[in-house]
Amino acid sequence: MSTEFTYAASGVDIDAGERAVTLMRAAVERTNRPEVVGGLGGFAGLFALDTAKYRRPLLASSTDGVGTKIALARQLDRHDTVGIDLVAMVVDDLVACGAEPLFLQDYVACGKVVPERVAAIVTGIATGCTRAGAALVGGETAEHGDLMDADEYDLAATAVGVVEADAVLGPERVRQGDAVIAMASSGFHSNGYSLVRRVVSAAGLDLHATPAGLVRPLGEELLEPTRIYARDCLALVDALGVDRVHAFAHITGGGLAGNTARVVPDGLEAVLDRTTWSLPAAVRLMEEHGVPREESERAFNCGVGMVAAVAPDAADDAVAQLTAAGVPTWVAGSIGRREDADTPAARLVGSYR
Questions:
Q1: Please, where in the chain does CATH 3.30.1330.10 lie?
Q2: Do residues 141 and 45 lie in contact, with contact meaning Cβ atoms separated by under 8 Å?
Q3: Which 3-state string (H, E, C) describes the chain?
Q4: Pairing mode of beta strands 57-65, 46-47
Q5: How far is it between the farthest Cα atoms of the chain?
Q6: Neighbours of 321 (CB within 10 A)
Q7: Contact status, residue 300 vs residue 286, Cβ threshold 8 Å
Q8: Of 121, 125, 33, 132, residue with least CA distance to 91
Q9: CB atoms within 10 A of CB 4
Q10: CB 217 within 8 Å of CB 208
Q11: Is 213 left (phi over 0), alpha (psi -120 to 50) or beta?
Q12: Which of 44, 102, 108, 189 falls 20 to 30 Å from 28 in CA-CA distance?
């Protein structure tokens, strides 16, 4: 008698996948914008771009993932926040050039489709899309039972945005004398977690305990979702104009100086003053357990998740508007002449408070 083979026995449960879609449907539909055509379940997401609204629209796109922060989510069995991180990583890259996020598609690869877990992940993605004003128009959940353990998963997403050709932000607009304003991060965001996890393991830190200096358990601190800046940054541009808001830099891998340097033109430098803010307690904890300061400032955002280069006369208005919107913001430095071409385009000076 021959052996019967089934897809489920091979590690792919179609019924579980369909149940996951049912569980996430309401959260996904809440992200819809008026431009979305059709609904969940089609082979492609459709979005009607109103070309009459723009003079010369440019489409912008960004793809990213969450990285090894997912390992902590698995360890703590909490999966409703990493989707917010995923959205933040792509939409805040889009807004760096001044683009409004329009829609996003996600990709979830897992060893086993557990409908409730997949629904929690995608509900987090939908929450992030709502915060960013982007529609979640589709995605893919792939079950890879012969490649990944049952509780393993990974996430990726691509977002598409639009910006007027004459309103693109970036180093071409940055001028000597511009103020650099810093927007506070909500934590480590989604970068540096391979290092964080290494420290936690080597130091034997308890994720359920509250270390000195923190006000909540370490695991909660480390899973705090990434702040999404997109809407507030776009509102700032709308209020002040591209003649006063010149560039944004999303502070991700590479740290504050490394990412700020990406929006500084040749011949100029951004000087950021550490005395204008305090190093977060969670970063100090990493340093207490062996991470050198130089490495902290390369691997972590050190308390700043986004910076903007603005005209000098716009600094106070920018700080006031962002702070009123709930984003702690301050003037952290300025753009000056770079005297030596071999020096970095952005550097930190002074000591943290």
A1: 11-38+53-164
A2: no
A3: CCCCCCCCCCCCCHHHHHHHHHHHHHHHHCCCCCCEECCCCCCCCEECCCHHHCCCEEEEEEEEECCCHHHHHHHHCCCCCHHHHHHHHHHHHHHHHCCEEEEEEEEEEECCCCHHHHHHHHHHHHHHHHHHCCEEEEEEEEECCCCCCCCCEEEEEEEEEEEEHHHCCCCCCCCCCCEEEEEECCCCCCCCHHHHHHHHHHHCCCCCCCCCCCCCCHHHHHHCCCCCCHHHHHHHHHHHCCCCEEEEEECCCCHHHHHHHHHCCCCEEEEEEHHHCCCCHHHHHHHHCCCCHHHHHHHCCCCEEEEEEECHHHHHHHHHHHHHCCCCEEEEEEEEECCCCCCCCEEEECCCC
A4: unpaired
A5: 83
A6: 17
A7: yes
A8: 132
A9: 6
A10: yes
A11: left
A12: 189
Fold of 11-38+53-164: 60s Ribosomal Protein L30; Chain: A; (3.30.1330)
Query: pTM, whole model, 2 decimals?
Result: 0.92
Profile the chain (353 residues) by mean pLDDT over runs of 10 residues.
Answer: 63 71 74 79 78 91 96 96 98 97 96 93 96 93 92 96 96 98 98 97 97 96 98 98 98 96 97 98 98 97 98 98 98 96 93 95
> Sign (positive/negative) of CA torsion 305, 332, 272, 289?
negative
